[in-house]
Structure formats: C-alpha cells, structure tokens
C-alpha cells in the first residue's frame, strides 16, 4: 500500500472533522493518506442567499473538479449537499454510519416567544426547507438569511438582533460547539441525507473504491438512497423545501417525506413502510404520489419563482 490516498475536503472545521473520519477509517486498514483542503464557492460567497447563486452542487463542485483533474483521489461531503445526479466519472464510494439527523434552534434569551401567538420573532437560516417548515408552524415570524460555516453563523447570531437561528444538530455536536441555549426541533423533518457523510471517487479508480467499500454502512446507504430518490423524483435540490427521513428497524424501512411551498402555506406529507428487500423504490413511489396529489403544482411554482 505505497500509494498515498489524497482526501479532498472543504476548509471549515466541520468539513475537516468529516474528512478526518474517512482518514481514520482508511488508516485503520493500513492505507497511507493525506488531507487536501480546497475552498468551495459556497465558502467564498457568504452574502448571497443560496437560492440566488444556483446552489445545486455549490459546496461540492470545487472538490469534484479537483477529483476529475486528479488533484485528489477521494472527496468527502456532507451528503445533504451532494446533488442527486453525480458528475460523470464520479461515483459514490462509501457512506459513513449516520450521525444525528435533527435540526435545532439556538435561541438568544429564552424560548417563551414560541408560545406567544402575536409575537413576531426574528429567526435566521439560509435553508429554504427550514424557512418553509418554520413559517408553516409560525406564519407571523420574520426569517433572515444566515450564511457561513457553523462558527461564523453562531457569531452572526450573537451579533444580530435576532431571537434565534436554526442549525443541524450534527453540525454543532460534531465539533463540540452546541450552545446550552438550544433545543431540538422534534417536529421538523430533516433534509434528505442530513447527518450523513459520503466519500466519492473517480469511477475508474478501483484502488480507492475498494478501500472505501470496507467502511460503507449499508443501512445508512440504503436510507439515504431512498431519501435522495424522493428528492430526485420531486426534481428538488437545496432550493426546494423537501424533507425526507428513512429509518430501518427490524428489517423494515420506515419512511416519511414532506414537500412545502416556499411560504409554508401548502404542505404535502407521506409515510410509507417496506421491507429492506423491497425498499428500493420507496422514495420514488412516495414522491410520485405527492406529485399526483397536487405537489407537481407546488414544485412548478417554486421552479418559476427562482
């Protein structure tokens, strides 16, 4: 194993944490590795809302190009940031065992405003999914754009006159920066593949594909495949308020999916179950049912609004 596997990663603390997980899994097998930090477009422009800069692949494009140009051998991504269609010549090599999937609210003072129906709270997030879900539950609240890595967003929250901001539990807990003034949002269904980390490599790189296959978590891979098929069938991306979560218990996949209009006023949800052996089309069929029930109209409106 004289070959050194070059692991590409974004430069944020969270991205480096994820890359180190892959690094440790490879070195545990005896492989030699090195980390190669690469800046992404999503890390450079921290002002423009994601839905205005063609978010599809914005956090993965730079790493994918480095992979195709043979500057790196493996790219490590937050799976929820990865487009449902991978670039040609790039394949999914391994999905790591999933971490926490929930979202949470970091609040400024207390959470009493959540129980005050007439209070107009100011809540920050860059996610259209979180915005739509929040407005569905709290239609009077004002939502504000919040970009940057986890630490930047926490600093921004502290500096602004906001009541709170929404984050992924995994993002804060993995780098040990979850504040005590935070609560899990149990009612908020996560983004497809939230909490999962994926390693991709070149299609013709059998060495890296075999190296990564050893730590692929089959349950997480199946669950995220179902969620991403739900997303793909609804023709969605990070600019569409789509949520999906698949859990596997006792050889049964339990799936929940949601589609919201941008303002949260219209809402479609679905729950399905299937055995692991018959779950391949679970996400796709659930999305097709939502489309038939009127979701297609909402998806069309969202696409026209971009």
Automatic annotation (TrEMBL):
Leading EC class: transferase
A Gene Ontology molecular function term of the record: hydroxymethylbilane synthase activity
Superkingdom of origin organism: Bacteria
Domain spans labelled Porphobilinogen deaminase C-terminal: 224-291
Keywords: Porphyrin biosynthesis, Transferase
Record-linked Gene3D superfamilies: Periplasmic binding protein-like II, Porphobilinogen deaminase, C-terminal domain
PANTHER family: PORPHOBILINOGEN DEAMINASE
Subunit-structure text: Monomer.
Function: Tetrapolymerization of the monopyrrole PBG into the hydroxymethylbilane pre-uroporphyrinogen in several discrete steps.
Similarity section: Belongs to the HMBS family.
Protein name: Hydroxymethylbilane synthase
């Amino acid at each position: 194993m004289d070959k050194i596997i070059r692991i590409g990663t974004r430069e944020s603390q969270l991205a480096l944490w994820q890359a180190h997980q892959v690094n440790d899994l490879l070195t545990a097998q005896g492989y030699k590795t090195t980390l190669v930090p690469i800046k992404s477009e999503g890390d450079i422009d921290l002002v423009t809302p994601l839905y205005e800069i063609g978010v599809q692949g914005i956090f993965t494009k730079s790493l994918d190009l480095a992979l195709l140009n043979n500057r790196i051998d493996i790219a490590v991504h937050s799976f929820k940031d990865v487009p449902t269609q991978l670039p040609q010549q790039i394949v999914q090599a391994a999905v790591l065992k999933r971490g926490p999937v929930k979202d949470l609210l970091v609040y400024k003072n207390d959470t009493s405003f959540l129980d005050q129906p007439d209070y107009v709270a100011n809540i920050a997030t860059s996610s259209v999914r979180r915005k739509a879900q929040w407005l569905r539950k709290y239609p009077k609240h004002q939502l504000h754009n919040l970009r940057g890595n986890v630490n930047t967003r926490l600093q921004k929250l502290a500096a602004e006159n906001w009541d709170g901001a929404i984050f992924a539990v995994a993002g804060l807990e993995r780098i040990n920066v979850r504040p005590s003034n935070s609560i899990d949002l149990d009612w908020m269904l996560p983004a497809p593949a939230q909490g999962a980390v994926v390693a991709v490599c070149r299609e013709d790189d059998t060495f890296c594909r075999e190296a990564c296959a050893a730590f692929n978590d089959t349950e997480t891979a199946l669950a995220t495949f179902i969620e991403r098929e739900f997303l793909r069938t609804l023709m969605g991306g990070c600019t569409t308020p789509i949520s999906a979560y698949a859990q596997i218990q006792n050889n049964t996949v339990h799936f929940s999916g949601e589609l919201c209009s941008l303002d949260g006023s219209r809402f479609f949800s679905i729950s399905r179950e299937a055995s692991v052996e018959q779950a391949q089309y679970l996400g796709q069929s659930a999305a097709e049912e939502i489309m038939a029930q009127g979701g297609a109209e909402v998806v069309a409106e969202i696409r026209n609004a971009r």
